[in-house]
Design brief:
By secondary structure, the protein is α/β, with parallel strands linked by helices. 53% of the residues lie in helices and 12% in strands. It has 2 domains: 5-182, Rossmann fold (3-Layer(aba) Sandwich); 187-270, 6-phosphogluconate dehydrogenase C-terminal like domain (6-phosphogluconate dehydrogenase C-terminal fold, Orthogonal Bundle), CATH 1.10.3660.10. α4 (75-85) runs parallel beside α5 (107-116) and α7 (184-210) crosses α11 (248-270). Bound molecules: 1,4-dihydronicotinamide adenine dinucleotide and 3-(4-hydroxy-phenyl)pyruvic acid. InterPro entries: 6-PGluconate_DH-like_C_sf (IPR008927), NAD(P)-bd_dom_sf (IPR036291), PDH_C (IPR046825), PDH_N (IPR046826), Preph/Arog_dehydrog (IPR050812), Prephen_DH (IPR003099).
């Protein structure tokens, strides 16, 4: 099989960067995958596990000869990476590889890129976000099938070269993902509601219970529902700190909207408003059942 591209460079070889590297090699999309990061031990482990072919600790050497560069570090580090990389191609944009990312927030990266590129999006920078992952981190947790049957959101810009967008789209399609386009603002609002708010709630709930004087009993007698609701509180704290900082406005809006709903439910419990509670729980059950059916149908296809 002829690979679509010669060299993919992954900046930050963790769960997502490692899983993408594995998938691109397994599907023959990229002839070589090279890693770069700040921790040599995890890059060396990546070579040992066969996730990447080689690595370099030198960013300039990593960029040299890359066809596609994927920034796969925590969100705030990713913005800093773009601010370091983009000026290297000022006045010679034809030398720039196609650059993309996997970060959970897009607005801060768009701002960083525009700030480093005279107020416009660089033609070959195409922002993206795979909606797949887990509470685990690091290259050891990476899997070639992580993105299969999952969605990847791209936020192409009018300033993007169509060929660059197509290459990033083809890269994700090669992993078995479904690719959808969105605006940066819609992405950050939707993800604040569906991903960032649930993580904030899980962290807040577990932290509140852990600090309670009865925490030993609370955790000893917790059942499956507690486990299901709180799995994501085992996610990496640095990653989620970055997301909360980068998507501040949208996260605050969803927390405020949710707080209103919680206050209404509190009132219904306080006033023994049985009808109000039943309505809330029934609406939520119907919506959750519909979501579960949608997930099942997607798995079957
Ligand atoms: N974990 C998940 O489920 C998902 C995460 N994402 C996003 O993907 C990105 C990566 O997340 P994960 O792979 O889960 O994290 P991870 O912690 O497994 O990997 C992050 C990698 O970045 C490297 N790194 C950290 N700081 C660095 C620095 N200053 N310079 C160079 N490299 C640095 C780390 O050494 C590590 O290899 C994040 O932006 C996250 O928001 C997107 C979808 C799902
Ligand atoms: O562990 C889970 O269920 C997740 O929600 C994984 C996840 C984390 C961050 C993202 O930006 C996308 C997916």
């Amino acid at each position: 099989m002829t690979a679509r591209i010669d060299t993919t460079v992954i900046l930050g070889l963790g769960l997502i960067g490692g899983s993408l590297a594995r998938a691109l090699k397994a599907r023959g999309f990229s002839a070589r995958v090279i890693g770069h990061g700040h921790r040599e031990a995890s890059l060396a482990r990546g070579v040992e596990l066969g996730v990447i072919d080689d690595y370099t600790m030198d960013l300039n050497a990593a960029l040299e000869g890359a066809d596609v560069v994927v920034v796969a570090t925590p969100t705030l580090v990713a913005a800093g990476m773009l601010e370091r990389i983009l000026p290297l191609y000022a006045g010679r944009e034809e030398a720039m590889p196609v650059i993309t990312d996997v970060a959970s927030v897009k607005g801060n990266l768009q701002r960083a890129a525009q700030g480093a590129w005279g107020g416009r999006m660089p033609p070959r920078l195409v922002l993206g976000h795979p909606i797949a992952g887990s509470e685990r981190s690091g290259v050891e947790a990476s899997r070639a099938d992580l993105f299969r049957n999952h969605r990847v959101i791209l936020t192409p810009d009018a300033d993007n070269e169509p060929a660059a967008v197509q290459l990033v789209r083809d890269m994700w399609l090669a992993t078995g993902a479904e690719v959808v386009d969105m605006s940066v603002a819609s992405h950050d609002a939707v993800l604040a509601a569906t991903s960032h708010l649930p993580h904030m709630l899980a962290y807040a709930l577990v932290d509140a219970l852990a600090q309670s004087p009865a925490s030993d009993d609370i955790f000893r007698f917790a059942a499956g529902g507690f486990r299901d609701f709180t799995r994501i509180a085992s996610s990496d704290p640095v990653m989620w700190r970055d997301i909360a900082i980068a998507n501040r406005e949208a996260v605050l809006a969803t927390i405020d909207q949710f707080s209103g709903h919680l206050a209404a439910l509190r009132k219904a419990v306080d006033t023994q408003d049985a009808e109000g509670m039943l309505q809330t729980f029934s609406r939520a059950k119907a919506a959750r059942d519909e979501f579960a059916a949608m997930l099942e149908a997607r798995q079957r296809n």
